[in-house]
Amino acid sequence: MTQTIKLAVIPGDGIGAEVVPEGLKVLAAALEGTGLEVRTTDFDLGAARWHRTGQTLTDSDLEAIKGHDAILLGAVGDPSVPSGVLERGLLLRLRFELDHYVNLRPSTYYPGVPTPLAAPGDIDFVVVREGTEGLYCGNGGAVRTGTPQEIATEVSVNTAFGVERVVRYAFDKARSRAAKHLTLVHKHNVLVHAGHLWRRTVEAVGAEYPEVTVDYCHIDAATIYMVTDPGRFDVIVTDNLFGDILTDEAGAVTGGIGLSASGNINPEGAFPSMFEPVHGSAPDIAGKALADPTATIGAVALLLEHIGQADAAARVSAAIDADMAARARASAAGSPLERSTSEVGDAIAAAVR
Ligand code: GGG
Q1: d(CA 331, CA 343)
Q2: Which of 232, 274, 309, 341 lies at a CB distance of 3.0 to 4.6 Å from 264, suitable for a disulfide?
Q3: Is 323 a catalytic residue?
Q4: Ligand 1 site residues, Cβ closer than 6 angstroms
Q5: Residues 5, 66: one domain?
């Protein structure tokens, strides 16, 4: 009997509309012959909708999205919309309302891919970024706006409950990997209140995971190691802001943010989890078929893994590996592959079948 996966699709803004169809193409290829089929529902959310209606994400959109097994998101943000309207009203609202407290961001270096690193070595780590708290939760405000006396605050929220659950997820992830190593990234020498809560939580939860080794990096040191010695990392656990910045840097050092995938996960399955490329809407290249869909296709691999289709996920990951190797061979031969967004999707979909 055919089993149906109900997938909410939010292409969003800019290159989101170009990369999401490639993700869906590869998803369909990966499910061929598995007895699973995908039923998609498109959600017209983003800048165009906001201009038409003034709405970002309504309660009824949210209820409809909750009726799905998972979400595939492209990108959010457009220069024609005031900064923050879409990012907070759509992307962050989805993460908060659907309790995506784990933002999982793997980083792998594919040999031969151009990188700013002198000696990239073996890079294969995963960042577990807290997704519902920290500086991103909107706790703040402004008074005397526009005057020389303006006061603006953004208060970082770190709850014992929120920190413990994401730290526990990170330890579980570390335990499942070969290196079994966890690095806490924070800034507890300065951010003493939140930092000590994170540190104490890692110590306490870590006592239940004797097989996992643990170390600590201040965020500033972590950004340096990301350039000088990224191979030292296995699993990183960190807060919302530090994780956002560190994973963009990780994308840059491993060959570009066009390769970096992300899963916004509600591990308990109370709400659908959401899979997206780490990159944003890239308005400068939108509509030119220049966007690399690999990050979105990597997000599809994370989605498949999340819904229990480990075999299909592994085939998508292997097809990405093969495509990256083909790129490296072509570059080494002096004729780098020049392909449109859909040509990259076609090549990876063909390799998946
Ligand atoms: N594909 C996701 C996207 O559009 N990201 C843009 C963005 O504003 N990201 C901030 C974040 O991930 O917290």
Answers
A1: 17
A2: 274
A3: no
A4: 75-77, 87, 91, 244, 276-277, 279-281
A5: yes
Mean pLDDT of 64-71: 98
Assess whether 64 and 154 both reside in one domain.
no
Of ligand 1's listed atoms, the one at least distance from the Cα of 75 is 4
User: Quick check: is 334 in a domain?
Assistant: yes
Nearest CA to ligand 1 atom 12: 244
Residue to mutate, 76, 78, 130, ligand 1, most ligand atoms under 8 Å from C-beta:
76
CB 271 within 8 A of CB 66: yes
Q: Are residues 250 and 272 in the same domain?
A: no
Q: Each residue of 20-63: pLDDT tens digit? A: 999 999 999 999 999 999 999 999 999 999 999 999 999 999 99
CA of 114 to the centre of ligand 1 (A): 24
Tell me which of 184, 219, 254 is where a domain ends: 254
The alpha carbon of 76 and the centre of ligand 1 are apart by a number of angstroms equal to 6
- Write out the DSSP string of 244-285: HHHHHHHHHHTT-GGG-EEEEE-TT-SS-EEEEESS---TTT
Residue that finishes a domain, picked among 227, 254, 281 = 254
Instruction: Give the DSSP letter string of 204-217.
Output: HHHTT-TTSEEEEE
Q: Which domain holds residue 175?
A: 115-254
- Determine which residue's CA is closest to atom 13 belonging to ligand 1: 244
Q: What is the CATH number of the domain that holds 349?
A: 3.40.718.10
Domain count, the chain: 2
Residue minimizing CA distance to atom 2 of ligand 1: 75
Distance CA 51, CA 108 (A): 38
ipTM surpasses cut 0.90: yes
Same domain, 122 and 249: yes
Determine which one of 101, 110, 136, 169 is catalytic.
Answer: 136
312 in the same domain as 184: no
Residues with Cβ within 8 Å of 266's Cβ and at least 6 positions away in sequence, in order, are: 98, 99, 100, 101, 102, 272, 273
The response to whether 282 counts as a known ligand-binding position is yes
pLDDT tier, 234 (very low <50, low <70, confident <90, very high otherwise): very high
Position 109 pLDDT exceeds 80: yes
Confidence grade of residue 1 (pLDDT, cut at 50, 70, 90): low
Give the tens place of pLDDT for each residue, 72-100.
Answer: 999 999 999 999 999 999 999 999 999 99
**pLDDT average, residue stretch 328-341:** 94
Is 0.80 surpassed by the pTM of this model? yes
Choose among 198, 216, 130, 211: nearest CA to 171. Answer: 211
Ligand 1 midpoint to CA 209 (Å): 32
Task: Indicate the top mutation candidate among 20, 87, 90, 96 to test ligand 1's pocket, ranked by most ligand atoms within 8 A of CB.
Answer: 87
